[in-house]
Design goal:
Helices cover 25% and strands 24% of the residues. The protein has six helices and eight strands. Keywords: Membrane, Transmembrane, Transmembrane helix.
């Protein structure tokens, strides 16, 4: 068993006080993601002609890439995302995430290598950056800057649905600051769902602890995110075509996270 602490009450411009508990926030967020996961993915936006040469935004063979991206992930009850007992079991050895090469003037580094582990490293940095502060506007801006033409819209993203749901219920508009409120996302586990097109297309997933802290009162939940990524020749980007099936959400290090296939991440250069 585990206990929950009511999330702090928030008020803006004459709206009355409301209370959001950990269970309510987590249940709403995870149910939203699970609801999206039951919707069949949209077909690829474009179909390249046979024999088309590789370009900066190539598309893997439709059957291979679509099957990989759209294959469903494990569905768990919302309670699996809440803090509870950890396990010593693992789904496999830690995944070593390479350290990116230094890149000037980039919030999210383009210096990750052209490997599946590099793709996972890129998504780890992307999610930790885009979710920091808990503002949907920040996430959308980071997504738009990281997506290739004809990539799925950010509005279908599970993490964005979570942030939007939270701020709607706290009566906070996108871009509005709440003094004393901090939101962080720390990735500790991940999985490589698979690759296609000679490794230039990869579907990878992160699992981390999304934490809300308001004036010393904190609450956390385990949130996963999967993205289909395309290697452009110089960097990983969110791929055009089919959206990756929505990730399993579980408390990092729990039995449920292991069952879903998440493995611990080891980041090069980080102890």
């Amino acid at each position: 068993m585990f206990t929950t602490t009511p999330f702090p009450r928030v008020r803006t411009r004459g709206r009355r006080w409301i209370t959001i508990s950990v269970v309510l926030v987590a249940a709403i967020a995870v149910v939203l993601i699970a609801r999206h996961a039951t919707t069949p993915p949209a077909p690829p936006a474009t179909t390249p002609p046979p024999g088309a040469a590789l370009t900066a935004t190539p598309t893997a063979p439709i059957d291979e890439a679509t099957a990989l991206a759209s294959r469903s992930m494990l569905t768990l009850p919302p309670e699996a995302a809440l803090p509870h007992e950890l396990t010593t079991a693992t789904a496999g050895p830690p995944i070593t995430v390479p350290r990116p090469a230094p890149m000037a003037d980039r919030v999210i580094s383009d210096g990750f290598p052209a490997t599946a582990e590099g793709a996972l490293g890129w998504l780890t940095e992307f999610n930790e950056t885009a979710l920091r502060g808990g503002d949907p506007a920040t996430y959308v801006r980071a997504y738009d800057e990281s997506a290739l033409p004809h990539a799925p819209a950010p509005q279908g993203s599970g993490p964005l649905a979570l942030l939007t749901s939270f701020r709607d219920r706290a009566h906070l508009r996108p871009g509005e600051l709440k003094p004393g409120l901090t939101v962080t996302y720390e990735v500790t586990q991940g999985l490589i769902k698979g690759t296609a097109d000679a490794g230039r297309f990869a579907v990878v997933c992160t699992l981390g602890q999304l934490s809300f802290n308001y004036q010393g009162q904190a609450t956390s939940m385990g949130i996963g995110d999967c993205q289909a990524l395309r290697w452009t020749g110089t960097a990983w980007r969110i791929a055009p075509g089919t959206r990756a099936a929505y990730a399993t959400c579980a408390w990092p290090g729990s039995v449920e996270s292991v069952t879903a296939g998440y493995r611990p991440l080891h980041r090069e250069g980080v102890r």
